[in-house]
Specification:
Layout lengths: L4 E11 L9 E7 L19 E4 H18 L2 E4 L2 E5 L2 E5 L8 H11 L4 E5 L13 E6 L23 E6 L2 H13 L8 E5 L24 H11 L4 E3 L2 H5 L8
Parallel strand pairs: 2-6, 6-7, 7-8, 8-9, 9-10, 10-11
Antiparallel strand pairs: 1-2, 1-3, 4-5
Length: 253
């Protein structure tokens, strides 16, 4: 595939539902395709569905959705830097780094003046991503079925403006994540997020997803939060805000 084009699943405007940017208006560019099959994946439709678009077409659509904010010229304050232009732009998937053109697209969106976020599985090399991009990097826990896909070399490329995210659905996930956070001193590298696995709806259960390993003990949202507090973990507990606002399996939000 040429770097000049990308296979795009959807482009939409919504509220940022995760990370330290939660609650802010955001344009999402969801790319098609992913080499992983995490047990809890809620966007399996992005494994295959999509249409080819040039980078110029993608940028044109992003600018069109962002136009009301451009006219106002207003920015939002962030404690870690100057005012941020809205809306944010997040490149997500699927796995966006599986398409070479995503690197050029993110660079161009930064050149356009947007604050750009990247949501990535942590299984692919993040070192070539434009340094202006805020990289939100997953660390795959045991219940994902993709533990062996963690690319630990990526830790060396993290900056304070990046974020690490552990998606946790079981006691075994939590205990493993707690050990990684402490033994690798992850909170000194960048902010660390812990997200609870929201149960999939029947429509989201793709047969290609990995099974949760036998013997895993599910955790509720409350139990997860209470364990974090009891262990005094230096993390941000997050819920997926969009799933509190809209149905959990609704697309384009």
């Amino acid at each position: 595939m040429s770097d000049d084009s990308l296979v795009v699943n959807e482009i939409f405007y919504s509220v940022q539902g995760e990370s330290s940017w939660t609650g802010l208006p955001c344009v999402f560019v969801r790319l098609t395709g992913c080499p992983l099959r995490c047990s809890y994946c809620d966007t399996a439709y992005a494994f295959r569905e999509g249409r080819r678009m040039t980078r110029a077409e993608v940028r044109q659509r992003v600018h069109a959705l962002a136009e009301p904010f451009r006219r106002s010229g207003l920015r939002v304050c962030r404690e870690d830097g100057p005012g941020v232009r809205l809306p944010l732009v997040e490149v997500t998937g699927g796995e966006p780094l599986a398409q070479a053109g995503s690197l050029l697209l993110m660079r161009e969106l930064c050149d356009d003046g947007f604050t750009v976020l990247l949501e990535t599985s942590g299984a692919l090399d993040i070192s070539r991503v434009d340094p202006r991009v805020h990289r939100i990097v997953d660390v795959k826990c045991p219940s994902s079925g993709e533990l062996d896909r963690n690319r630990w070399e990526n830790l060396e490329w993290l900056r304070p403006t990046d974020e690490l995210k552990f998606v946790i659905g079981t006691v075994e996930d939590y205990e493993w994540a707690r050990e990684q956070i402490r033994s690798r001193d992850l909170a000194r590298r960048c902010p660390v997020l812990i997200s609870w696995v929201h149960p999939l709806t029947p429509a989201q259960m793709d047969p290609s997803l990995k099974p949760v390993p036998e013997g895993h003990r599910p955790l509720t949202r409350r139990e997860l939060a209470e364990r974090i507090l009891a262990d005094a973990l230096p993390v941000r507990f997050q819920a997926q805000l969009h799933k509190w606002i809209w149905p959990a399996d609704q697309r384009g939000v």
